[in-house]
Specification:
homodimer, 269 residues, alpha+beta, three-stranded antiparallel sheet, 6 helices, 13 strands, globular
C-alpha cells in the first residue's frame, strides 16, 4: 500500500474542494488513477461548504456556562456551539474532561460534537459537514470528472461510468478510551464498503471465523491521520494506492455496531 | 509512506521469529533498511515464544462456567483461560457481549484479556507475549543483526550502533466503543516513540495547540492490521517505509492516558 500526502496549505471558505485536491495531486507529479482512495479531513470539507461558526456571535446559555466551568479552559461561546451542534444532530452529552465534552452524535463518540478551533479561521469553530455522505459522494464525482478530463485529453475513454472509479472517505480525529493521543474515525464514505466481513472465512488452520469484521474505513482513517497531523502540516488529504480493496457503490455514514454486539455495551449505555 | 505486507504462512511454536521475518522480507525482494518500522502481530510473537494454552487441560471454575453462559458460544475452558490471564496480568473483567468479555489488562481495554483461538493451533488459545516490550526489543535487535549481516557482506559497515536503526511494534486487533469491526492497538514498541506531541506547536493560523498528541503507534497498528486481516492471509507483519518518523531509544508498553485527561473518564471507571 502507498499513502501519498496531499499538501494544500490554508484553504478559503467556500473553495472548490475538488479543484483544490486535483491541484494538490498534480503538485506531487501524479495523476488520479482508477481505484484511488482519497481520504480527506472533515474540517476542510466543512470549510469548503462554509460550515464555520463565528463564536463571538453566540450568546451562551446557562448550560453552556456550566459546561465551560467543567471543561476549564473552553469559552462559554465554544460550549454553546457544542451544545447547539449536539442538539442539531440529535446527539447526547455523555461526560467531560479537561478541554473536551464527550458527545455521541450520529452514533459516533466524539469530542465536542466534532467542533474544533484548531486550523479554523480566528474566532471560529469548524464542525462536521452537514451531510458527510453527500459531501463524500460529491467530492468523489468531482474527482472522477477530473480523472475523465485527463483521459479525454489522453483520448483513453470519453464516457464516465456509472460505477465508482475512485473512493472518498471523510474522517475526523478522535480519542479512544484509556489511550493517549489521537487516532481517527471515518464518518462517511462514497465508493468503498467501510467493512470487510471475514465471518465464515477460514483461518490458517481451517477453523471458521465467527466474529471477524475488519473496520477497513477506520483503519484507513487512522493511517491517513498519521500523515495529516493536527498542526500546521497543511495536509488535509491523503491518496491511497495499491490497497487491494475493491471499490463498491456504497455511499453513506460508516454505521455503528448493533448494541448487542458492542464489546463496551455494559459500561456505555 | 509505503506499507509492505510480509507473508509467512503458518509458523511453528518456538520458531525463531527474527529469521522468519528476515526470510519473509527477502521473499518480496527487498532488504531491511535503516529506519524501517516492523509491525508484527502479538499472536506470532506469542507463538514463537510458546505462549499457547491448550484448553482441554484446564478445569473450569464456577466463575468460568458462569462467564461461558454469558458469552453464549465460548467454552468454559476458554473462559477459564480468560479469567486466569486477567488475574495473571492484574487486570479486571468489565463486561460481556456475545462471544467476548471486555477486560482491562495493562491499562488496555481488550476482548478476552487478549486471548484468541483464531489462527491458534487446534484446541488452543494464544495470549499476548509475557513481556511485550522485551519481545519487541529482542526482535528489533535480531533484525538489526540481520541488517548488519547484509552490510558486512556488502562491506558497508561492520559495527552495530548503540542507537536503534529499525523499530518494532507489537500490535493486537481491538474493538472501539460503538464502532463496528476491528482496528488495532499497539501494545509495545522498541525503537520508536509511540506518541508525537504537537502541544505548543502552532496551527495554520498561528494558534497554539493545547491538546494535540498524535497516537502514532496506534495509527501504525491500524494501518498495518488492514493488510494483515484476521483470517488465513498469513500476513503477521508489515514493514513501514518512507514514514518520516524519527526512531528513538524508547522501549516499553504504549502507556495509557492519565485518567483526568481521558475523554471517556465519566463513563468508564
Amino acid at each position: 500500500v502507498q499513502l501519498l500526502p496531499l499538501q494544500t496549505g490554508i484553504l478559503e471558505q467556500g473553495c472548490d474542494l475538488g479543484s483544490v485536491i486535483g491541484d494538490a495531486v498534480k503538485k506531487v507529479n501524479i495523476h488520479l488513477t482508477e481505484s484511488d482512495i482519497l481520504i480527506v479531513s472533515s474540517k476542510v470539507v466543512s470549510l469548503s461548504e462554509g460550515r464555520v461558526f463565528p463564536l463571538a456571535n453566540l450568546s451562551p446559555s446557562k448550560e453552556a456556562k456550566r459546561l465551560a466551568v467543567k471543561l476549564k479552559d473552553r469559552s462559554p461561546e465554544f460550549c454553546e456551539a457544542v451544545l447547539r451542534e449536539t442538539r442539531h444532530r440529535n446527539g447526547r452529552l455523555l461526560g467531560t474532561c479537561k478541554g473536551a465534552a464527550l458527545t455521541e452524535v450520529n452514533g459516533i463518540l466524539i469530542a465536542n460534537a466534532g467542533l474544533d478551533c484548531s486550523n479554523a479561521p480566528p474566532g471560529c469553530a469548524i464542525g462536521w459537514p452537514e451531510d458527510p455522505p453527500h459531501s463524500a459522494e460529491r467530492l468523489r464525482k468531482a474527482l472522477e470528472q477530473e480523472l475523465y478530463r485527463v483521459r479525454i485529453r489522453c483520448r483513453v475513454r470519453t464516457k464516465p461510468q456509472p460505477e465508482p472509479v475512485v473512493a472518498v472517505l471523510i474522517i475526523d480525529s478522535c480519542c479512544t478510551p484509556r489511550r493517549r493521543g489521537l487516532t481517527a474515525v471515518a464518518l462517511a464514505c462514497s465508493g468503498l464498503n467501510p467493512f470487510l466481513d471475514e465471518r465464515g472465512d477460514l483461518d490458517l488452520f481451517g477453523k471458521k471465523l465467527h466474529y471477524t469484521t475488519d473496520a477497513v474505513a477506520d483503519c484507513l482513517a487512522s493511517a491517513a491521520s498519521m500523515l495529516m497531523g493536527n498542526g500546521a502540516q497543511g495536509i488535509p488529504a491523503v491518496l491511497v494506492r495499491d490497497h487491494g480493496l475493491q471499490l463498491s457503490d456504497f455511499t453513506g455514514w460508516v454505521e455503528e455496531v448493533p448494541l448487542e454486539e458492542d464489546l463496551f455495551r455494559d459500561i456505555l449505555k
